[in-house]
Every structure is written in C-alpha cells, then in structure tokens.
Write a structure and sequence with these properties.
Layout: H1 2-26, E1 39-41, E2 44-46, H2 48-74, H3 78-105, H4 115-125, H5 129-157, H6 161-182, H7 203-212
Antiparallel strand pairs: 1-2
Length: 214
C-alpha cells in the first residue's frame, strides 16, 4: 500500500509540473506598463511625451497660420499686421519640420486644431480693428506660453535625437514669437499664468544663508 501511495504521489507531482509548464507556455507574458508607453526607433526611444510634443506643435500651427492671415486683413495696428505675417510664415516652416519628423517616427498627426483653438479662430474671425488687435496678441501670447513649457520639458529629457532637434527648433520659434507679440505693446502680462513657485531650499542651504546674515 505504501508503494502504491508513493507511486500515486509521484504521478501527481508529474501532473503538477506538466500543468505548470502548460500555463507558462499558454499565458501571454506580462507587459511592463512603463515599457508600453514607448517604442524603439532608429533615433532612440519614442515616448508618449515625445508624441504629444509633435501633436501640440502641429496643432499650434494649424490655428496660428490662419490667425496670421486674419491679422493681415483685420488688424488696425500696422505692427500687429507685421507680427501676424511673421508668425504665419515661421509656423509654415515649423509645421514642415514637424510633419517630416512625425513621418520619420511613424506618428500620426491631426489635420485640424483642437476645439479650444477652433473657438479662438471663430472669435478672431468675428472681430476687426482694435478689438482684433487686442485679442489676437493676447490669445497667441497665452498659447505660446503654454506650448513653450511643453516643448522645453520634452527638450530637457527626451531620449530621441529627432525629437530633441525638433524641440530645440520649437523653443527658438516660440521665444521669437512671444517677443514679436510683446513688441506690439498690447500684451496684458497681468492675465498670463503665474510661474510656478520655487521649491523650498534644502535645510543645508537655509543654514548657510542664515549664517551669512548673522
């Protein structure tokens, strides 16, 4: 009877091992959530943030180019007309770079502005004269401030060389455009989002600063 029991246990152990092997072979491998957000390309890893940059820069051009055309015909200020033309022409160049980069990396881009940007275009299309000048400069200045933080953040940390090059160009373009808009004298800086508060100084730095003032 003991021999039979030992034989049964041996067979049971064999069945358990076989079942475990079958489960390993049939079950799909676990997917790392972090790895699922990026893909490898010839120019380095492409992350969700990298893709988001391409989309946001593309959409910025899709509304700022027609807005620049509006400025040429609806603005009263000669400087606003000039700024609108400059931004429109430069966004055409940046848009071409964005589309070329997206094609290399296999990223699909939108063909129209987002709903908020469409509402800005509708607003500008209904205005002319001083009202247009004021809204054009302030809408674009606020939008450039938002996209600048996205581009700068990606530029500082991307592992993809193609995205790095585009982000650097984007920073250059956006900084120029903010300066153009501010040159009109119509930007209301009090309405712009406040910069983030600085991080608290570490205890060692605070102690050193305290000794300097005692």
């Amino acid at each position: 009877m003991h021999r039979l029991l030992r034989g049964e246990l041996f067979m049971l152990g064999g069945f358990v091992v076989a079942a475990a092997v079958t489960i390993v072979l049939v079950m799909p491998p676990s997917i790392d959530p972090a790895a699922a957000t990026w893909t490898q390309t010839s120019s380095g890893p492409l992350t969700a943030a990298d893709r988001d940059l391409l989309i946001k820069v593309r959409q910025a051009g899709l509304w700022e180019m027609p807005a620049g055309q509006y400025a040429e015909t609806r603005a009263e200020s000669q400087r606003v007309k000039e700024v609108g033309k400059l931004i429109m022409q430069e966004h055409m160049k940046l848009d071409l770079m964005t589309r070329q980069t997206a094609k290399k990396l296999g990223v699909a881009l939108p063909d129209e502005p987002n709903p908020e940007q469409q509402s800005w275009l509708a607003q500008l299309a209904s205005e002319s004269g001083p009202a247009f000048d004021k809204d054009y400069t302030n809408l674009l200045r606020a939008a450039h401030g938002k996209v600048f933080t996205v581009v700068a953040s990606v530029r500082s940390g991307t592992r993809n060389s193609e995205i790095r090059k585009l982000a650097q160009e984007g920073i250059n373009f956006v900084m120029r455009h903010m300066a153009y808009l501010e040159s009109t004298g119509l930007v209301d800086h009090t309405q712009l989002p406040e910069p983030p508060m600085p991080s608290p100084a570490p205890p060692v730095a605070m102690a050193v600063e305290k000794r300097r003032h005692t």
